[in-house]
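Reopening: Glycosyltransferase still failing for me.
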Amino acid sequence: MTIFFTVLFYTFLVTSAIQVAYYIVFLSCFAVKKPSKTQGHDISVSVIICAKNEAENLKKNLPSFLNQDYRNFELVLINDSSSDETFEIMEAFAEKHNNIKLVNVKSIEPFWGNKKYALTLGIKAATHEFLLFTDADCKPVSNRWIKEMSSHFNNKASIVLGYGAYKKVKNSFLNKLIRFETLMTAIQYFSYAKTGNPYMGVGRNLAYRKEQFFKQNGFINHMQIRSGDDDLFINETANKKNTAICYSENSFTISEPKHSFNDWITQKRRHISTAKHYKFLDKFLLGTFYISQILFYTLSIILLITIFQWKIVISVLALRFTLQIFTIGFSGKKLNEKDLIYFAPFLEIFLIIMQLVIFSANLISKPKHWK
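Support: Ran it again with your exact input. Result attached.
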């Protein structure tokens, strides 16, 4: 029995070392990063919003886009075969604003339920070279959103990764979980980009040049995958030279979070289903971190219950949680999510459990449509 617990103990030390190394080498990169100074560009921007059955959200959110403090931009609104009044709402706004361009996508059997097809038509219709993407259920937190995101384009950077936050809801555990998962994802993709290995972005706040899209042949290499218009495209085309990150507070978008676990799980099933198509190195690094998380918590609980080498176990736990508090604290402050630091360990454990549930559900049946 002593040999068994000795093996568990050394396995715990190895997984803890992986966790500590991951926080030091990767996640802390964004935490300690200082904001880069940029100069505003007088470039023309096409803001692209693809909507499917989003009539009510468009009514609420489109004014925030139209009121942007930016000289030359157009709003490309794509109606992806909606069955509600989405297109009628788009037309009503277009009648009052001459910088709105409408793209009405009809259902075509080979591309039914495929957001990438609709987005491709919208990108082709866009007048300008610089494209800024968001969703119909999002709105910018300030009227400087376009200015802040577009300022990071330069002669090298043709891709800009932004932050898409979720609205805070008081006294809601689900809301904290959603925001914690969003924060941890952002810390990862910002940190990876900082280390020269950008692997994903979020469609709620993402920008790239039209030239970059066509250079990559658009979404052709993963058109058959229903989701991934954001992360799979970035995973395929981004590199350390052509990618910049933008995390100034005025550059954020904010979305209404899901209000039930079932709705959130359905959303995350679509998102997670694309990860298996990432590059091998990205899958290896992300998978190693996730597996080491599971082992870290599982083994530490077993060792503490059995009081086996408990002093060393507690010391290692203290080191790892100190790094976590440092990373989430500084990163959360930058992304206006600092209240989550107080719940980080508990939220992390629950998120690990939920991710296992989602992975298992995706093995049984695959998500079929983006909406």
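The chain has a mean pLDDT of 91. If you still see a failure, please send the error message rather than a screenshot.
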